[in-house]
Records
---
Amino acid sequence: MYVYGRNVLKEIINAHYPVKNIYFTDSKKTDKTFKELIELTKKHKYSFSFAPDNVLQKMVNVSKHQGVVIDIGKEFKYVDETILNNLRENATIVILDQIQDPHNFGAIIRSSLAADANLIVIPKDNSVEVTSTVIKVSVGLAFRIPILKVTNISRFIETIKKHGFWVYGADMSHNIYYETNLTGNVAIVMGNEGSGIREKVKSKCDALISIPMANNVESLNVAVSAGILLFEIFKQKSGR
Amino acid sequence: MYVYGRNVLKEIINAHYPVKNIYFTDSKKTDKTFKELIELTKKHKYSFSFAPDNVLQKMVNVSKHQGVVIDIGKEFKYVDETILNNLRENATIVILDQIQDPHNFGAIIRSSLAADANLIVIPKDNSVEVTSTVIKVSVGLAFRIPILKVTNISRFIETIKKHGFWVYGADMSHNIYYETNLTGNVAIVMGNEGSGIREKVKSKCDALISIPMANNVESLNVAVSAGILLFEIFKQKSGR
């Protein structure tokens, strides 16, 4: 799988994420920030080579690769469920129930790390996966937060309840998000762009929380909703 | 300009927005929600006709038109600056300084109406405009909130200051958004996806406000940031 972009490479190196090879464009070897990236790559002993722009473009099928394409091997490395034993106290888990849009997923990854969430969970089926577009939209932050793929979201919710998590579904409800105590071990479930959280998954949640809206608007973009809820959790956990 | 989608048509009718013609697919005339849409169109005396799917597809260049294409005439109807004389007390203005991505713009329109903002402002140059993609992403809400295009953002900020607005730029700052009083007549300025607010525009702001972030993440997706700030303003103005 090929991923691309300068920020993406920086985050890969930051995260010491293992890759097969890094391809730099051969047309910008003298560019200053570019030289620094190559130095960083050398310093961390990553394998790299140079290639013409049109070869890079063919690898990733986009022109805005910024002169950097990274071969990260067969698939993005998801974590497994044993991570639940290693989460810190007062952890935050973000569960995405069948999100479809890579831009939404990428933006949610970015917000999750920024709001100090500790794990993102997606279902194996009917969900966007971590693709090169998702990684690009996440500005490479997908390499810095654990992402877990599970067979069954409902069963996963039961599992984390046993680990002491309180699970909130983002849905129409009388519980206003900023009037709800979101400290401690907490998970939020965000639903599909069109249809929201599936009924079966919703029934597993401890409570539903809602963002009050004006002008009879029914819902927000899911990445925006997730951002609002995640930063409320972050604020409350910071003791504000 | 052709726009498309069922929600988009609903919002056009809700807003009594004048259009040239509405084209329905001729393949779904018996579909229930579809019939209701046609009834609504008749009731509000909009002109409409039927056309084959492939004709609709050619008009909008996408396949997911949901059987509804609307010809809204030459250009989307922006408001003019006289709107400033008709804003309510304690109004909220959203100023977008050279946003490029139609998905971001559409999501911000949706959040703005949902958070009870009263006006969205974009610059004439180097900015995404209200296109059919923007309208689709806004789920048609672009027809329900005034959008103004100005030649010069800096000068516009000077104008609204005279109208009693306090102008906040979203940028790195020591002023944390939820510790800042955002009631009264308030405007927020959101910057370009890559480079943020231009220096000249920033210098016109009364203050900068910032969303504190963990893990050295430098910024969020601009639609997410806008959503977080807009819903903080909405919350404060609701007296919570």
---
Amino acid sequence: MVRDITERKRAEEELKTLYRLGLDISSSVNLEELLDKVSTYIYPLFGTNTFYIAVYNEKRNTLVFEIDYEDGVKQQKLEVSLREADGLTGWIFKNKTPVLIGDWDQEWRRYPIVPLFLNKKTKSYLGVPIIYQDKVIGVIAVQSDRVRTFDEKSLKLLTTMAAQLSVAIKNVKLIEDLKMALREVEKSYEITLEALVSALDFREHETQFHSKRVASYAVRLARELGVKDEELKYIYWGGLLHDIGKIGVSDSILLKPGSLTDEEWEEMKRHPEIGYRIIENIDFLGPAKDIVLYHHERWDGKGYPLGLSGENIPFYARIFSVIDALDAITTDRPYRKAQSFTKALQEIRRCSGTQFDPEVVKAFLRIPISEWKKIKQEVLEVRGELSKQLYVTVQLAAEETRQLLGSR
Amino acid sequence: MVRDITERKRAEEELKTLYRLGLDISSSVNLEELLDKVSTYIYPLFGTNTFYIAVYNEKRNTLVFEIDYEDGVKQQKLEVSLREADGLTGWIFKNKTPVLIGDWDQEWRRYPIVPLFLNKKTKSYLGVPIIYQDKVIGVIAVQSDRVRTFDEKSLKLLTTMAAQLSVAIKNVKLIEDLKMALREVEKSYEITLEALVSALDFREHETQFHSKRVASYAVRLARELGVKDEELKYIYWGGLLHDIGKIGVSDSILLKPGSLTDEEWEEMKRHPEIGYRIIENIDFLGPAKDIVLYHHERWDGKGYPLGLSGENIPFYARIFSVIDALDAITTDRPYRKAQSFTKALQEIRRCSGTQFDPEVVKAFLRIPISEWKKIKQEVLEVRGELSKQLYVTVQLAAEETRQLLGSR
């Protein structure tokens, strides 16, 4: 009777522990946190601090030993190709069958495998497959340097844990997959914007990569001004899109080599508004739209299209107009060669308080010239691969067109 | 002793049930499924089939009675503004405190509230807040038409359930939020493409909405041909982007009112390739890219740019080229007025096996003309809002430009 009650008490304790484990692990949102939590339950339930959890990576067809403890000491994460994983873990995984070994020296002949722990002091071993909806997704195992540490009850217990674990792992993976998908779509969004905008940029041949470059510059300056990381994407998108309205300006004005007439100039000045109209319904772009509409406003109110002044101009647009000037000065234009960054800094300093927000200029001047040069180079070399290819193609087309026009 | 063992057995049974519940609910990926699962555990644990679960909706500041059973009969879902929810549920929610009522007729004076079940036969009641990281996210309650159905032990049990539930609800909400975010970004992606491509379309004034319209047409035809739902987006994107390469064609050719010279025509024919170059690195677009590159190939091999024939032309491009012809025939062109859909069908039937894939034409001819007209109207009216605004702006700009050019 007493034995029965003791036994019952033990079972109840285990159940309570399992219950707590379930609660604990289901609140995890990433695999590492989840498995770390599981680790703290092994000793109370199995009396050993040598154990591991391997999770199957479907894409790479590998078993990843995410958790591996030996005598309580955490080992390095290890990834093993499933084909090569012919140790006990691979055997359990492939055969979907648990393995309970009371004394390895007596029983090793039963398993047609060379276990990975052969040279270690492990005498008894218990490993079970982690199964989710009939598919093995991993293996959890406990080990001991004493013989017969685990019994049928341990097997039942570990199997129950594995069932909890399978659901938690699947949840965590679903969340991780969704997060990754979200990042990928956002990335694609950016790449698509870059590609379409680069294509537009090529109409003005002298400013290839202009949008991509100013977008990158603007992010740097915004950071200097303490703009939060999660807001920087809006600066970047705004930078990419700022000249999108030039799509409404005809080649004859946009590509005119000489200076524009007053009327042509009026036409050119409509591009911020046209650009804004193009993107105004895209909620996702948020404050990026401010940059498109207001990037030609001036601090002293003499800009366009609305003639706003001072802090009435949205902050991101005030940041951007400094950057747009920086790029205009430091790249070739049809009517003059590119000037140095030193020259650009002088010019921007000179226009602080008239064209530009003085606070923004102050932050701008804190950034060393080397950084602007580095960004320029990166856009050209590292991130400009796509644009370069495109450049060659579109440039060629444009060149042929010019020849055709010339030959008529 | 016997009582002790019985008690212990009961506790163990409860714990086992709770354990199973935990496993069950943590595998849910949507709220409805989750709460339905919880519902099946109420009777075994509390001996009643009258209960409800209300979940807080942060955005709308409401309590949503997601689950409401009376004597085992599922009631309609109910949403109550939190301000008005001054029943017991609102009280529990606001005070973050459980309520245990043994006999309502005796105890009602204790609560400064008018309970929602006042006119019902409820005599005893037990409700607890569902708390996640110190914030109340809902209420779970059980009711009975007998007095003193629930005791302190029931309270403890329901509190434990609520703890499990809180984690599961949060997980499910995280997953739902992520899925919604993903849908939103994808939607934004589409809207952005539409906006940028519409902008491009306006260079060829006679084909406003062309890209959006053919994208919608193409989806209809693809559906007729049994293309899977999840693939349709590629058709749509391909339709939107098919003429993106015209960005590399200069105004003088693209907007030429008369017919093109051979050289100009050669230039024009480069647009599929230029378009493909612009988007080729955007993995996300998948087979949409085929439409961009191959939409001017012909079934008989006399198309461009590669002169592919028959099934060597990617399927989506074969679908699209029929649609592109449909739109070309049924919209105004500078050199002729729009023709009827009947005329277009005749023309497409005539070119089956030469210009077009006969199988695709067969499917195309099965679709009644009324459907094409409906889509055309929808794009113009319903989905064309953005484009219309844009049209006015860009049209105006273009008009002014033409006047300027004319006046010089």
